[in-house]
Amino acid sequence: MDRFVPHPDYAEDQPYSRTILTTHVLHRGANVGAAFGALYGAARYGLSAHARKLPLATSMVQASGVGVVLATGVAALALSGRMYGRQGIEWQDRSWRLLENRPQNGIDEWSASGALVGGVLGGVKEGLRWKGITGSAGIGSVVGIAGWAVYNKMGGRGEQANAVGDSEKADVRS
What we know:
The chain is mainly alpha-helical. The protein has 6 helices and no strands.
């Protein structure tokens, strides 16, 4: 996200703080909903004969779509409750810290890329409707997070890879 919005040196100068924090929280809500929805769809498929009328993948994708919608709604309510009545500087500080966190920015980018690919693939398949497209995007975002974790663990350009390597070569912001 730090590539698309300005990131000043001080939190007090952070523009678009409400938009940044809201986008982040809703994105994480969609990730959680996709993961739990897919797990629910797989469990339901295994436990219910009625659920086995559809293929396992379809059951997981549709349940993931419902999970994305529900968890995003819950995340919106949680953010509203948590930040209700807070001053602008508190929004700016939280948004600034999100943009300062390089691993979090990597997760955001990989997750959004996975969601885009998953949503496009879900949109190409006929008959999936909103549950399928939303579920495909949600599962794609979770796969993107897993991809980031593997990439970072294997020595990609992430914070963790730099911290493990030679301290003289570490990429540290001052």
